[in-house]
Amino acid sequence: GAWHPERVSYTVARAGQQGYHHRTLINKKIYRIGKGATTDASNASTEHDITQKCITPMGGFIGYGIVRNDFVMIKGSVTGPKRRVITLRRPMAPQTKRKMTEKINLKFIDTSSKMGHGRFQTKKEKYNWYGTLKKARIHAEEEQKKKRLAKAAERKKTTKK
């Protein structure tokens, strides 16, 4: 690179594992490796919570959207934007801490909305609580109206013949 500035910019690719475009994480505990929503619609169900629900929370993940592909659920945080690729690698030394070696048994995965005060896990649960919404009622009335008009048109055709 250039002589000046005397330091290297953070955007320049350099050796190591924590570069800007190469994010590597070690010592992360993996909670679940799941299939995408297209292959497994109930990928957020557990042994204790048998509700048929998808891993995507209601309304999608903020800044990401809907999880369509296979996913990995890990403990802790991951730095950087939500869509940036990460690399998980095994640590050099074997894990000896009890916290890192104990087996994980997930009992519940929260799929409520991450915007506001989400309290419903599935759309079905929400509709059962609120009942028929105005939008759904208007849609049903329009469908009934279309059916009535189609029947009336059919009757007119049969009476004219």
Description:
- There is one protein chain.
- The strands form two sheets. A two-stranded parallel sheet has the order 1-4. A two-stranded antiparallel ribbon has the order 2-3.
- The protein is elongated, with a radius of gyration of 26 Å.
- The longest helix has 27 residues, at 134-160.
- The chain has 161 residues and is α+β, with helices and mostly antiparallel strands.
- Helix content is 24%, strand content 9%.
In short:
With 161 residues, the protein is an alpha+beta fold. The protein is built from 3 helices and 4 strands; from the N terminus they run E-E-E-E-H-H-H. The strands form 2 sheets. Strands 1-4 form a two-stranded parallel ribbon.
Keywords:
4 strands; elongated; two-stranded antiparallel ribbon; alpha+beta; 161 residues
Share in β-strands: 5-15%
Helix content: 10-25%
Element-level helix/strand string: EEEEHHH
**Main β-sheet, in a few words?**
2 strands, parallel
Shape: elongated
Structural class: alpha+beta
Distance between the termini: 89 Å
Strand order of the largest sheet: 1-4
Averaging pLDDT over every residue, what do you get?
Answer: 86
Radius of gyration, whole Å: 26 Å
Q: List low-confidence stretches.
A: none
Please report the number of helical segments.
3
Please report the total strand number as a whole number: 4
Q: What's the SSE blueprint?
A:
Blueprint: E1 23-25, E2 30-34, E3 71-74, E4 86-88, H1 98-101, H2 123-130, H3 134-160
Parallel strand pairs: 1-4
Antiparallel strand pairs: 2-3
